[in-house]
Amino acid sequence: MKNKWFVIVNPTSGNGTSKKKWPLIFKELTKQKFDFEYVFTAYEKHSIKLVQNAIKQGFIKFICVGGDGTLHNIVNAVLILNPINISEIKVGIIPIGTGNDWVKTYKISKDYKKAIQIIKAEHTIKQDIGKITLLKSKTVFFFNNLAGIGFDGYVVNKVHKYKNLGFLAYLTGALVSLTSYKKAMLEISFNNEVIKDKTLMLLIGLCEFSGGGMKLTKNVHPTDGLFDISYIKKITLFTILGNIPGLFNGNITSHKLVKNYKTSELNIKVLDTEKTYIQADGELIGSGNFNVSLLPKAIQFIIPKNS
Ligand SMILES: Nc1ncnc2c1ncn2[C@@H]1O[C@H](COP(=O)(O)OP(=O)(O)OP(=O)(O)O)[C@@H](O)[C@H]1O
Questions:
Q1: Mutation pick for ligand 1 pocket among 7, 13, 21, 40 (CB with most ligand atoms within 8 Å)
Q2: Rounded to two decimals, what is the model's pTM?
Q3: Ligand 1 centre distance from Cα of residue 70 (Å)
Q4: Residue-range domains of the chain with CATH
Q5: What ipTM is given for this predicted complex?
Q6: Does any ligand 1 atom lie closer than 6 A to the CB of residue 283?
């Protein structure tokens, strides 16, 4: 069992591309002599249950066929279960999502044949993971790419309407939402600092890309034990329109309206509304007050040797 792969296919990822491409991926995995079992997710978050059951059966090698949301659910499955052999568990990805943001940090190819070669080589990295605790419900979520509160979460809430636009879905969602979003009063405590202000958004990053290829956090190192924080009090539609290349090449993080910090722990209080959306890896997880902490090198991912 230990050498057999468990493949999770989200048929809805990439607007249904996963389902269409699966026969080709199945054929290639077979051709490359992978010993594997596979299962299609049947509903949202189904992959959590599937992965936890597979771990209990003895599987330690997983392949995610899907996007950032599917990978997020697999990571959550592993960390929520927290089995004694957690350090042996490996997760590889064949990226078939809409945004496919996590894979960009490691330059994992979107060509399924190349992605399969990367997985076959089994070169791994142990990456930092974020842990969010929602204080009201005491619910815990983990994230492997980037979490955000405020406008960022609001966009994630809208983005499903634009998923047929592919990677432009997030940019379109952001531009359409900017005029309707009402800023919330947040109290953000980290290191020895407290920010208490009406806030457009707070981004808590581990990896480099979010929002379909945007680089919104600075000096990112997914294994340095620190979150890369971007705090934006306000920004106008006009400023964003004038900085669209900067969203994708990272220059936006040096704009005077964007403040950058590094920390491994934050406490966030939402002072004037309970409806401020929190997103983790592009998945909406809730609202209200929450704490964030960093679990150093908590999950082992399969990545290219030269990334
Ligand atoms: N059978 C299913 N029916 C409906 N939703 C599902 C099903 N299986 C998984 N999901 C949900 O699909 C959501 C989106 O998946 P995923 O993120 O992999 O694709 P994507 O949104 O196209 O890609 P990206 O996040 O990279 O933009 C996840 O929240 C997951 O819980």
A1: 13
A2: 0.95
A3: 6
A4: 5-122 (3.40.50.10330), 131-296 (2.60.200.40)
A5: 0.96
A6: yes
